[in-house]
Structure to design on (496 residues):
């Protein structure tokens, strides 16, 4: 497995309820966009473990510890399954697997065990198939395959243990606070000061309930560094074998975002942005008719029909979901001219030259982007021959099906002998062809390398939630950059 692996742990302070799942998806999506494989370790939703424990103790004076462990681990299992569904809806392929599925064994007291073994190859095989594997934290199995728990806060332990066994490039413990705060001698938190870098002893002394002490000891024993941060953070606290360094806790006022377009994708983006209140404030929404009745969830005070009025609301980031050229091009040019960052899913704009020239077709724009990425060559979408879907396409599809084949519109590009060829054609494919399996918004890609090796990938394409998730992930990346560079911001652009 060549792609680097990152382990992200989401505690119950992050996963307070299912309503928080989109925030977690954005964090995962950002890492996947970097070409990383993600192991997402999740805690139970807030309060679930305590509720389960209280219910058991109300019925049993001395419950069997393994039986109690089996009941308590269901909280993490439910949260993991819910995250898997949310990732699937967002177009991010993921597998959900429990401790038994990855051979995570632990030894010691049933409610305070220590992880000892992982079926690493099994987990690596999963990561070779999908970019994200979701693992419930907090639990493992003993030698008799009985459930055991890793103690309070044990999901931290799960994450660090998996990170070490997988050789992960990073392990991030995501909390509701952006890093480790200094503790005063009287035991109160210094909310004005945090650790930019914290040695293990700092974590043990000031970590309190933020990081499980046994997990910190494990990291120290193996010389592991890890990060404590909040979702959406550009920095957080680097913890490990480092020199202690304190810094003022940064003030993190929400980044101001203006949204253009409130169609299928635009409304999905708005809903996702609305759940990120700690990071983002939506200051305006551009629509064709500000007086037209909109979804109740969009306050009328946010609506405007004027590009100038939208940009005059002083956004830091502009999100374009209008589509096409025309108004979209005007908006993007004006936003960039004002020094604003822009996020867009508009392939027609992105596929053009650096001046965002008016290009024509979405399918050709997609292919132009792939050509630029694969061959480092710019190709005008208007020069790509395309066989359109027309009145005769249905009859063609019926004939293909009768012959045991599937009709698909296939984009093709090849560089041979210094010459670049590209086209979009209707092709009859054999039923077992990877491209034939695509349906509705699914996309598939086959790459044949110069060595003859073939690489295939498939996943969801256009649609409210896949596109909206990609756009919001780019927005969050822009938010991080805006915050990290301070007031002297340079224009940035991102494409979902």
């Amino acid at each position: 497995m060549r792609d680097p692996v990152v382990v992200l742990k989401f505690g119950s302070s992050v996963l307070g309820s299912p309503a928080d799942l989109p925030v977690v998806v954005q964090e995962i999506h950002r890492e996947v966009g970097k070409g990383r494989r993600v192991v997402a370790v999740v805690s139970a939703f807030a309060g679930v473990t305590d509720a389960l424990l209280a219910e058991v103790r109300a019925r049993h004076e001395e419950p069997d510890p393994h039986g109690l462990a089996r009941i308590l681990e269901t909280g993490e299992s439910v949260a993991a399954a819910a995250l898997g569904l949310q990732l699937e809806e967002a177009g991010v392929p993921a597998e959900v697997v429990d401790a038994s599925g990855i051979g995570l064994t632990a030894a010691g007291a049933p409610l305070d065990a220590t992880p000892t073994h992982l079926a690493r190859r099994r987990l690596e095989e999963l990561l070779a198939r999908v970019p994200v594997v979701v693992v419930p934290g907090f639990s493992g199995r003993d030698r008799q395959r009985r459930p055991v728990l890793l103690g309070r806060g044990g999901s931290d332990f799960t994450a660090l243990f998996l990170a070490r066994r997988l050789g992960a490039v990073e392990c991030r413990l995501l909390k509701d606070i952006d890093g480790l705060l200094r503790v005063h001698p009287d035991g109160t938190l210094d909310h004005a000061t945090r650790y930019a870098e914290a040695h293990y002893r700092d974590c043990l002394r000031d970590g309190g309930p933020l990081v499980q002490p046994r997990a910190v000891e494990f990291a120290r024993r193996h010389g592991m560094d890890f990060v404590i941060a909040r979702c959406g953070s550009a920095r957080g606290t680097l913890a490990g074998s480092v020199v202690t360094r304190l810094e003022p806790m940064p003030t993190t006022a929400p980044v101001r975002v203006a949204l253009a377009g409130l169609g299928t994708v635009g409304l999905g983006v708005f809903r996702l942005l609305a759940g990120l209140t700690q990071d983002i404030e939506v200051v305006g929404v551009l629509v064709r008719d500000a007086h037209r009745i909109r979804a109740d969830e969009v306050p009328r005070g946010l609506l405007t029909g004027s590009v100038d009025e939208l940009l005059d609301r002083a956004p830091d980031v502009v999100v374009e979901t209008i589509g096409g050229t025309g108004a979209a091009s005007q908006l993007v040019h004006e936003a960039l001219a004002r020094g604003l960052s822009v996020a867009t899913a508009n392939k027609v704009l992105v596929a053009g030259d650096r001046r965002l020239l008016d290009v024509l077709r979405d399918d050709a724009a997609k292919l132009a982007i792939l050509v630029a990425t694969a061959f480092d060559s710019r190709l005008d979408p208007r020069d790509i021959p395309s066989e359109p879907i027309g009145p005769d396409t249905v009859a063609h599809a019926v004939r293909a099906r009768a012959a045991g084949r599937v009709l698909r519109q296939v984009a093709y590009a090849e560089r041979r002998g210094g010459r670049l060829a590209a086209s979009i054609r209707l092709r009859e494919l054999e039923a077992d062809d990877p491209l034939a399996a695509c349906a509705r918004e699914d996309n598939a890609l086959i790459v044949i390398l110069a060595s003859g090796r073939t690489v295939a990938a498939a996943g969801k394409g256009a649609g409210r939630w896949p596109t909206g998730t990609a756009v919001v992930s780019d927005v969050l990346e822009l938010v991080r950059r805006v915050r990290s560079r301070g007031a002297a911001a340079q224009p940035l652009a991102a494409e979902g």
Residues 352-361, 487-496 have pLDDT under 50 and may be disordered. The domain at 255-345+465-495 is CATH 3.40.50.720 (Rossmann fold).
